[in-house]
DNA sequence: GCGCCTTGTGTGACCGGTCACATTCATGCC
DNA sequence: GGCATGAATGTGACCGGTCACACAAGGCGC
């Protein structure tokens, strides 16, 4: 162990080489596990490495070899539960593969700003993971130059707007379908929907799943209410819906929206689930503790993040252990906020 | 603009140099804004840069100059509101200074695992920001080698466990003091406290502030209840507190704990704020939409993150515009969950 | 006893920048 | 006119690794 107190600069392979009495190339071979190194030599080198506290300089490695063992996550948001969980999943998998994780936030959805941010991320070297749940993310994905290794975390599987690139997704359509069926099966005539902002001009997968379930049940199809991402949007939407006595079941694009809706219903004096049933999306950590606790669809965001990394990892190193299909199955969690419509309906 | 379709490797300064008919050093001077370059030469170089789409290679820059224009945030958590907001603040400020942001998650609080993660973060080059709100973070801060530039985001200002390093903090003591005083001023005899896990063996700043306010008011000082970080911990603590009819006011270490407490009180049939008042900490985005909406203390985590970066930035570049004192003032937000004790007390 | 392949090791160039120093030329001053 | 001075530019080494190739020694076939 290095006991010289002097804060000198860290040992390089040449330092190790002289200490072990070999050439720097031999040291390089040892740290890369090259087969043709005599065991006794390897031993000496390893001893020198240990003594000098040598660590391979990641920057030099990146410059010389081109491979940078790093990924950058581009996202429009870091605090929302889903986004943050994806990031966590990516970090988890990256750490296991000893990759570094960078993060870039798409503050604005304006094209030039997004392009600049993509450029910055590209400068960092390594691969890119773009969370394309929102307009900023979708634009970012589209702005990534073709030669850059990138994986998109997208809403809808079919032909993502980013072109012909690898991507991962959760089956939002199926999840919405399941949640809607659940509400219908309780006896509600139809289910209203408060949508999260769509990432593209096309209707979102969640909207499609909801619509499909209604159609299958022959239920009337109300206009979806446009929400935002946060509880404030849900609150505004909930206020409108609360006015309509025909509304007895509301599906929300995420749990935050659902929270706002619950609050609005409470303020309007409509009981949940007595008069109105509410269901959310994501199963955020607080949803189980709300009063009433929230019926929702649990999505495995962390697993999604891990899958995104695995896919990118396969692209970056042609070892190419591209996982079969990283779609995890959404799971309906029934809690207090959903129930049969009141008898007096 | 580069129109050759060939996906060739990006232009280097030598490519630019030959294109502009100068030496690579002159190109270097231009991109670094060195004064002694003839205007006409500069113009030619800039034109070549534009034509070839040259971007300075960040890796090479880091290797050659030592400065890496990057910071890594070490944190035990990415999804909790406070942590995620700090990260966002760091990223915001870093982006403005065109620094790259890396992230490392301290999955375990075990010393070896933490040390390894610190090493990894150090390998990335650049500075470190350690969120030391929990045991893992505190250990990480302590494990950072002395020669590494690091800023700690800590709970308590006085002599942080990490040694004599720059750090930032919010005035948690004052915040807890204010919240406690608020509850006492409503007429409660005393205020119970559900604590977040302490980052060190010493009592946390929040606990201290709460205790101090009780002392000043001459109120009895109940034992703080140990919670965890999430709503589950609050729920467990709330169950215990709900049994005791003498409990009329509860201060919680964060909003998630408060949510769990609210739920437990609801399950026990104790009304809020009628029978029991509850206050939280952080003002998470959902707190305003709970039923009852939560009285809490708003903390500027994003600002804290920005301040942490600014401080680190000053250390990394001796331009040293070390901000005066980056402590933002916590703000009490009174909502529905707190009120006077019921008359029948 | 020669050629050939394999194993173990070393040398020089290179990745794309920066840094320290050398060089050239115009200018100002005595 | 000679010389110091400073502006404008170029040259070579270097950061810490990797890569392609050279080279010596040992084993084997014939």
Describe the 3D structure.
The structure is a homodimer of 345-residue chains. The first copy, chain A, is of the alpha/beta class and 345 residues long. Chain A has 3 domains: 13-56, 434 Repressor (Amino-terminal Domain) (Orthogonal Bundle), CATH 1.10.260.40; 68-169 and 301-326, Response regulator (Rossmann fold, 3-Layer(aba) Sandwich), CATH 3.40.50.2300; 172-299, 3-Layer(aba) Sandwich (Rossmann fold). In chain A, 42% of the residues lie in helices and 13% in strands. Chain A is built from 12 helices and 11 strands. The first copy, chain A, has helices at 13-20, 24-31, 39-52, 58-65, 81-96, 111-123, 135-143, 172-185, 205-217, 231-243, 255-267, 301-316; strands at 70-75, 100-105, 127-132, 150-154, 167-168, 192-195, 225-226, 249-252, 277-279, 296-298, 331-333. Chain A has a 5-stranded parallel sheet, sandwiched between helices. In chain A, β3, α7 (135-143) and β4 (150-154) form a beta-alpha-beta unit. In chain A, α10 (231-243) crosses α11 (255-267). Chain A is elongated. The N and C termini of chain A lie far apart (78 Å). Chains A and B meet through α4, α5, β2, α6 and α10 of A and α4, α5, β2, α6 and α10 of B. Chain A binds a DNA duplex (30 and 30 nucleotides) through α2 and α4.
């Amino acid at each position: 162990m290095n006991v010289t107190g002097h804060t000198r600069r860290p040992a390089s392979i040449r330092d190790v080489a002289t200490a072990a009495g070999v050439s720097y190339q031999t040291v390089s071979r040892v740290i890369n596990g090259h087969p043709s190194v005599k065991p006794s030599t390897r031993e000496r080198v390893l001893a020198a490495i240990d003594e000098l506290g040598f660590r391979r300089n990641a920057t030099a490695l990146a410059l010389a070899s081109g491979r940078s063992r790093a990924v950058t996550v581009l996202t429009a948001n870091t605090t929302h539960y889903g986004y943050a969980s994806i990031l966590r999943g990516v970090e988890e998998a990256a750490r296991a593969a000893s990759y570094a994780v960078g993060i870039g936030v798409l503050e604005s959805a304006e094209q030039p700003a997004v392009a600049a941010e993509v450029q910055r991320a590209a400068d960092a070297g390594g691969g890119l993971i773009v969370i394309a749940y929102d307009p900023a993310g979708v634009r970012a994905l589209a702005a990534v130059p073709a030669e850059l290794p990138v994986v998109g975390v997208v809403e809808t599987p079919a032909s993502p707007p980013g072109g012909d690139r690898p991507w991962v997704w959760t089956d939002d359509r199926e999840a919405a379908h399941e949640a809607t069926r659940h509400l219908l099966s309780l006896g509600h005539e139809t289910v209203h929907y408060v949508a999260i902002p769509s990432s593209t001009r096309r209707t979102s997968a969640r909207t499609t799943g909801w619509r499909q379930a209604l159609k299958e049940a022959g239920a009337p199809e109300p206009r979806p209410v446009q929400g935002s991402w946060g509880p404030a949007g849900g609150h505004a939407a909930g206020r409108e819906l609360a006015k309509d006595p025909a509304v007895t079941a509301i599906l929300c694009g995420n749990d935050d929206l659902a929270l706002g809706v619950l609050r609005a219903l409470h303020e309007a004096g409509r009981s949940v689930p007595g008069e109105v049933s509410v269901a959310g999306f994501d199963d955020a950590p607080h949803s189980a503790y709300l009063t009433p606790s929230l019926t929702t669809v649990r999505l495995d965001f962390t697993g999604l993040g891990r899958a995104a990394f695995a896919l990118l990892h396969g692209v970056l190193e042609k070892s190419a252990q591209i996982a079969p299909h990283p779609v995890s199955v959404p799971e309906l969690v029934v809690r207090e906020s959903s129930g049969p419509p009141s008898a007096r309906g």
